[in-house]
Amino acid sequence: MIKTATEIDAAVLIEPGAPSPLKQRDTVCDHLFSKREEAEASVAEDSKAVDKLQERLWAERKRALLVVLQGIDTSGKDGTVRGVFNQCGPLGVEVTAFGRPSEQELAHDYLWRVHGATPAKGMIGVFNRSHYEDVLVVKVRKLAPAAAIEQRYEQINAFEKHLCENGVTLLKFMLHISRDEQRQRLQERLDQPDKNWKFNPADLEDRALWDEYEAAYEAMLSRCSTAHAPWRVIPADKKWRRNALVAAIVRKTLEEMAPAYPKPDWRPSDFRVV
Ligand code: ADP
Prior knowledge:
Number of domains: 1
Low-confidence stretches: none
Number of helices: 11
Order of helices and strands: HHEHEHHEHHEHHHEH
Bound molecules: adenosine-5'-diphosphate
Oligomer: single chain
Helix content: 40-55%
Structural class: alpha/beta
CATH class: Alpha Beta
Distance between the termini: 55 Å
């Protein structure tokens, strides 16, 4: 049976304050879209609906949606952007990928570059990686003092609350794949010549730190899933299911935001096009 968007959302939502052991969360979740054809039909419909809703959001020009995508290497962040937002007009969606900070970015506080990339009113912003790298890779690879990193969870919660209070709805998705699925995806990058360009030897170093990353993700989920900006953990071993789940929740969120076309302060009948 096909699940409703509300049922899907309830299955992936991390309740604020709840512990989030990732090992206990299934990375497959057959019961959420059991058939590939159903998932593909669903994502096709939802992504068209997202485009229509974004047009309303733009017409209203009062609020914005920010979709945050996090996940370890090969978890499918790029594929999710392509799979979910491919029906949207290119003027309405702004995707920002956060890589290693530049010298100028490092000269500022870690949220400086992030705030600058948040979506303007009327837009959908998508973050491919985000400020959460500053409590993930930075924590695991000890790129900042532990005490400074410890303060960031609350700083991030406060920053996101500030965004919410200023018209930005946040949707945060962690794309969750199994260790074995990552092994297969990395191996494909070595085996298939047209995927070689995606391979980065540093990905193997991060893979060797799997347990440390898992612990950092769990801390992020339990400390930064808030009432104003909860986390959702998406089972992402199957790309088609991952896209369908994310698209369903993006659509549902925009429908709940219910952006409205502005009422003109003139009557169309007062004008005549000659
Ligand atoms: P991706 O792996 O997302 O396809 P890249 O190959 O450009 O893209 O990798 C981006 C890299 O930047 C990742 O290894 C990520 O951990 C790193 N990165 C992102 N944000 C930070 C940060 N704040 N500090 C250090 N490294 C970061």
